[in-house]
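Please check our next protein.
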Amino acid sequence: MISEPHIEWDETILPFQLDASNVRGRAVRLDKCLNEILGQHEYPAPVEALVAEAVILTALIGQSIKLRWKLSLQIRGDGPARLIATDYFAPEADGEPAKIRAWASFDADRIKSTPGPAFDLIGKGYFAVLIDQGEGTTPYSGLTPIAGQSLSDCATTYFDQSEQLPTRFSLTFGRSTQPNQDESWRAGGIMLQHLAKASPS
Protein backbone atom coordinates (compact mmCIF):
# COMPACT_ATOMS: atom_id res chain seq x y z
CA MET A 1 0.00 0.00 0.00
CA ILE A 2 1.08 3.56 -0.56
CA SER A 3 0.02 6.70 1.22
CA GLU A 4 -0.46 10.10 -0.40
CA PRO A 5 1.38 12.23 0.57
CA HIS A 6 3.18 12.22 3.93
CA ILE A 7 6.78 13.19 4.50
CA GLU A 8 8.23 9.79 5.25
CA TRP A 9 9.92 8.83 2.01
CA ASP A 10 8.97 5.17 1.93
CA GLU A 11 5.53 4.48 0.45
CA THR A 12 5.04 8.07 -0.62
CA ILE A 13 3.99 9.89 -3.77
CA LEU A 14 4.79 13.59 -3.72
CA PRO A 15 3.27 15.90 -6.37
CA PHE A 16 5.08 19.08 -7.36
CA GLN A 17 4.78 21.88 -9.91
CA LEU A 18 7.40 24.22 -11.37
CA ASP A 19 5.30 27.20 -12.39
CA ALA A 20 8.11 29.10 -14.10
CA SER A 21 8.73 26.14 -16.42
CA ASN A 22 5.13 24.95 -16.88
CA VAL A 23 6.21 21.57 -15.55
CA ARG A 24 4.40 19.35 -13.10
CA GLY A 25 5.48 16.02 -11.75
CA ARG A 26 5.37 13.26 -9.19
CA ALA A 27 8.13 11.65 -7.14
CA VAL A 28 7.57 8.22 -5.63
CA ARG A 29 9.29 5.78 -3.29
CA LEU A 30 7.85 2.27 -3.05
CA ASP A 31 10.25 0.00 -1.18
CA LYS A 32 7.75 -1.76 1.09
CA CYS A 33 5.05 -1.98 -1.57
CA LEU A 34 7.38 -3.61 -4.07
CA ASN A 35 8.76 -6.06 -1.52
CA GLU A 36 5.23 -7.13 -0.63
CA ILE A 37 4.21 -7.58 -4.27
CA LEU A 38 7.29 -9.50 -5.39
CA GLY A 39 7.42 -11.48 -2.15
CA GLN A 40 4.13 -13.14 -3.10
CA HIS A 41 5.68 -14.73 -6.20
CA GLU A 42 8.81 -16.52 -7.30
CA TYR A 43 9.40 -14.75 -10.57
CA PRO A 44 12.67 -15.07 -12.50
CA ALA A 45 14.90 -12.04 -12.03
CA PRO A 46 14.10 -10.49 -15.45
CA VAL A 47 10.36 -10.77 -14.79
CA GLU A 48 10.83 -9.21 -11.35
CA ALA A 49 12.55 -6.27 -13.01
CA LEU A 50 9.67 -5.79 -15.46
CA VAL A 51 7.09 -5.98 -12.68
CA ALA A 52 9.09 -3.52 -10.56
CA GLU A 53 9.25 -0.99 -13.37
CA ALA A 54 5.54 -1.40 -14.13
CA VAL A 55 4.60 -0.89 -10.47
CA ILE A 56 6.52 2.39 -10.25
CA LEU A 57 4.95 3.65 -13.49
CA THR A 58 1.50 2.67 -12.26
CA ALA A 59 1.91 4.62 -9.03
CA LEU A 60 3.15 7.74 -10.82
CA ILE A 61 0.46 7.70 -13.50
CA GLY A 62 -2.35 6.67 -11.15
CA GLN A 63 -1.70 9.50 -8.72
CA SER A 64 -1.47 12.08 -11.51
CA ILE A 65 -5.08 11.75 -12.68
CA LYS A 66 -8.44 12.37 -11.03
CA LEU A 67 -9.26 8.76 -10.29
CA ARG A 68 -12.36 7.51 -8.53
CA TRP A 69 -11.60 3.80 -8.73
CA LYS A 70 -8.92 2.03 -10.75
CA LEU A 71 -6.11 2.54 -13.25
CA SER A 72 -4.45 -0.47 -14.84
CA LEU A 73 -1.41 -1.04 -17.01
CA GLN A 74 -1.20 -4.08 -19.26
CA ILE A 75 1.91 -4.93 -21.23
CA ARG A 76 1.30 -7.82 -23.63
CA GLY A 77 3.83 -9.27 -26.04
CA ASP A 78 4.70 -12.30 -28.09
CA GLY A 79 7.93 -12.93 -26.20
CA PRO A 80 8.61 -15.12 -23.15
CA ALA A 81 7.20 -12.40 -20.86
CA ARG A 82 3.64 -12.62 -22.16
CA LEU A 83 1.91 -10.26 -19.74
CA ILE A 84 2.85 -7.72 -17.09
CA ALA A 85 -0.26 -6.30 -15.42
CA THR A 86 -0.83 -3.82 -12.61
CA ASP A 87 -3.79 -2.19 -10.88
CA TYR A 88 -3.79 1.07 -8.92
CA PHE A 89 -6.83 1.58 -6.70
CA ALA A 90 -7.54 5.17 -5.65
CA PRO A 91 -7.87 5.93 -1.92
CA GLU A 92 -11.37 5.21 -0.67
CA ALA A 93 -11.36 8.39 1.43
CA ASP A 94 -9.13 11.38 2.19
CA GLY A 95 -6.13 10.28 4.19
CA GLU A 96 -6.53 6.64 3.21
CA PRO A 97 -3.79 4.85 1.25
CA ALA A 98 -3.99 3.90 -2.38
CA LYS A 99 -3.38 0.25 -3.21
CA ILE A 100 -1.36 -1.44 -5.94
CA ARG A 101 -1.25 -5.03 -7.12
CA ALA A 102 0.75 -6.63 -9.93
CA TRP A 103 1.32 -9.97 -11.58
CA ALA A 104 2.96 -11.54 -14.60
CA SER A 105 2.46 -14.39 -17.05
CA PHE A 106 5.56 -15.86 -18.67
CA ASP A 107 7.18 -18.91 -20.23
CA ALA A 108 9.87 -19.94 -17.75
CA ASP A 109 11.69 -22.24 -20.16
CA ARG A 110 11.91 -19.59 -22.88
CA ILE A 111 13.12 -17.01 -20.36
CA LYS A 112 15.96 -19.31 -19.28
CA SER A 113 17.07 -19.72 -22.88
CA THR A 114 16.71 -16.05 -23.86
CA PRO A 115 19.69 -13.88 -22.86
CA GLY A 116 19.66 -10.11 -22.97
CA PRO A 117 17.83 -7.23 -21.29
CA ALA A 118 14.58 -7.95 -19.46
CA PHE A 119 12.66 -5.61 -21.78
CA ASP A 120 13.55 -7.77 -24.78
CA LEU A 121 11.56 -10.63 -23.23
CA ILE A 122 8.31 -8.83 -24.08
CA GLY A 123 8.78 -8.94 -27.83
CA LYS A 124 6.26 -7.28 -30.10
CA GLY A 125 2.98 -6.21 -28.56
CA TYR A 126 1.25 -3.29 -26.93
CA PHE A 127 1.31 -1.07 -23.86
CA ALA A 128 -2.19 -0.36 -22.55
CA VAL A 129 -3.50 2.18 -20.06
CA LEU A 130 -6.96 1.32 -18.74
CA ILE A 131 -9.01 3.66 -16.56
CA ASP A 132 -12.20 2.54 -14.84
CA GLN A 133 -13.98 5.23 -12.82
CA GLY A 134 -16.44 2.76 -11.37
CA GLU A 135 -20.08 1.82 -11.68
CA GLY A 136 -22.08 3.77 -14.24
CA THR A 137 -19.07 4.92 -16.26
CA THR A 138 -17.52 3.74 -19.52
CA PRO A 139 -13.96 2.45 -19.05
CA TYR A 140 -11.21 4.17 -21.04
CA SER A 141 -8.46 2.27 -22.83
CA GLY A 142 -5.43 3.66 -24.64
CA LEU A 143 -3.05 1.37 -26.53
CA THR A 144 0.32 2.07 -28.09
CA PRO A 145 2.88 -0.36 -29.56
CA ILE A 146 5.76 -1.65 -27.49
CA ALA A 147 8.54 0.81 -28.29
CA GLY A 148 11.92 1.97 -27.08
CA GLN A 149 14.16 0.11 -24.67
CA SER A 150 12.12 0.07 -21.46
CA LEU A 151 8.61 0.22 -20.07
CA SER A 152 9.33 3.86 -19.23
CA ASP A 153 9.88 4.47 -22.94
CA CYS A 154 6.54 2.77 -23.65
CA ALA A 155 4.79 5.05 -21.15
CA THR A 156 6.44 8.08 -22.73
CA THR A 157 5.21 6.96 -26.16
CA TYR A 158 1.69 6.53 -24.77
CA PHE A 159 1.57 10.09 -23.44
CA ASP A 160 3.10 11.52 -26.62
CA GLN A 161 0.69 9.70 -28.95
CA SER A 162 -2.52 9.28 -26.95
CA GLU A 163 -2.50 12.29 -24.64
CA GLN A 164 -0.31 14.74 -26.63
CA LEU A 165 1.29 15.58 -23.29
CA PRO A 166 5.11 15.57 -23.28
CA THR A 167 6.03 13.27 -20.40
CA ARG A 168 9.30 11.78 -19.22
CA PHE A 169 10.15 9.23 -16.56
CA SER A 170 13.29 8.51 -14.57
CA LEU A 171 13.09 5.32 -12.50
CA THR A 172 15.51 3.39 -10.35
CA PHE A 173 14.96 0.02 -8.72
CA GLY A 174 16.83 -3.07 -7.64
CA ARG A 175 17.77 -5.33 -4.79
CA SER A 176 19.73 -3.81 -1.92
CA THR A 177 21.78 -5.51 0.78
CA GLN A 178 22.45 -3.70 4.06
CA PRO A 179 24.65 -4.96 6.91
CA ASN A 180 22.75 -7.32 9.23
CA GLN A 181 19.60 -7.06 7.09
CA ASP A 182 17.92 -9.32 4.56
CA GLU A 183 18.15 -8.43 0.90
CA SER A 184 15.24 -6.21 -0.12
CA TRP A 185 13.93 -4.18 -3.04
CA ARG A 186 14.43 -0.43 -3.29
CA ALA A 187 12.40 1.51 -5.82
CA GLY A 188 11.73 5.11 -6.74
CA GLY A 189 10.99 7.34 -9.67
CA ILE A 190 10.05 10.74 -11.03
CA MET A 191 7.53 11.70 -13.70
CA LEU A 192 7.73 15.11 -15.41
CA GLN A 193 5.03 16.57 -17.66
CA HIS A 194 5.33 19.76 -19.70
CA LEU A 195 2.04 21.63 -19.66
CA ALA A 196 0.81 23.88 -22.42
CA LYS A 197 1.03 27.57 -21.61
CA ALA A 198 -2.27 29.13 -20.69
CA SER A 199 -3.68 31.58 -23.21
CA PRO A 200 -3.55 35.19 -22.02
CA SER A 201 -6.91 36.41 -20.76
Notes: DSSP finds four helices and nine strands in the chain. The first strand starts at residue 12 and ends at 18. The mean pLDDT is 90.
